[in-house]
Amino acid sequence: MKTLTKEQTGTSYRSGIRDGAALLDLARGWLKQGNPVVALELLKSALDTPEADHDRTVRAGILKETGRALMMQSDWTGAERCYVEAERLFLDLDDCKGASECARNRANMCFQQGRYRDAEELCEKALGWASTAGQHELRATILNTVAAIKSATGDHRGALKSFKLCLADFQASGNLIRQGYVLLNIGLAEIELRDFTAAVDSLNDALAIALSEKDLTLVEICYQHIARCYLEQKETVLARSVIDTARKILPGLNSRALEVELALIECRILRVSGDFDAAEQLAKESYRKAVEHKLAALQADLLCEQGHLHRESGRIDIAEATYNAAAAQYRQLGVDRGFQDAIQAIEQLKRRTDR
Questions:
Q1: Element containing residue 12 per DSSP (H, E)
Q2: How far, in whole angstroms, is CA 255 from its chain's centroid?
Q3: What span, in angstroms and rounded, lies between the C-alpha atoms of 187 and 151?
């Protein structure tokens, strides 16, 4: 393998390698390491090589990876220009996989900018080309984006359908860990639809994969949401059992955030069980930990939970003040749903006290 050397030309450094395909491979390696700056320099050198002029496959690859590097730097306009040109070249070459990847990445950029309709149209094109190329894993990643678009626009039933199609493609491609994360997303979509029984089944399937693949992050998230599902179903004994199991399996817990999350769920269990004193003590301790570890979103959740506690124990003025604090925190974080929930709780209090 050639050694990468550099020589200074004017004010910029250029690679000593003169082979376009070799430069492209090197750039891909740097992109995998998350370094678009070095990758872009290599890709610029690659575009100046004779291969980039004479070999359209190499040129399309260089343009696609340049789009990817620019996308990593949030240069949406530059990335779009490169992807469009690469997509055109791939189609000329009858390379449906390459064209599909370009369209998918353009869709992801539109999604990140909140242009959901444009993202959806690009996904439709990308799906068609991926299907023609028989690329199950590529189809799955596109369907994952389609589901994310539907979730972002509030179409949870549509998102659930897309996630299930996505799961089928990941199963066909044999990617087990991605199946686990899609099952998690299916469970979350089912929670949004308040189908908690189905959500527990999906989350347990995801948990089984997480345990077999030793993915602690996925294990933690599954336990949190399974406990929440049981709590929503008023199955407090089962919810507590899940929390106890999580604490045994994850000694010391992998993250402070999870520790506080589990405590928050336990607060809810204690509250619905009528043990307000224990719930209040745990909520205060957990809030202190959330502040200590700068867990801003959980601070807001715990304030809201303390508001519920004060309301249900008849301390209306304290409840209103606590809800107001939670609403302010949610607004600062841009958590619209939490903000709306806190405001709704305040309005309910006012109606209850006829103010």
A1: strand 12-15
A2: 18
A3: 13
φ, ψ (nearest 5 deg) of residue 257: -60, -45
Q: Are 137 and 170 in contact (CB under 8 A)?
A: yes
> Which distant-in-sequence residues (6+ apart) come within 8 Å of 78 by Cβ?
67, 70
Render 286-352 in DSSP notation, one character per residue. HHHHHHHTT-HHHHHHHHHHHHHHHHHTT-HHHHHHHHHHHHHHHHHHT-HHHHHHHHHHHHHHHHH
Angle between helices 96-112 and 76-92 (to 10 degrees): 160
User: Residue with structure tokens 């399974």?
Assistant: 226
Query: Minimal CA–CA distance to 85: which of 109, 66, 113?
Result: 66
For the entire predicted model, the pTM comes to: 0.74
Q: How confident is the model at residue 25 (pLDDT cuts 50, 70, 90)?
A: very high
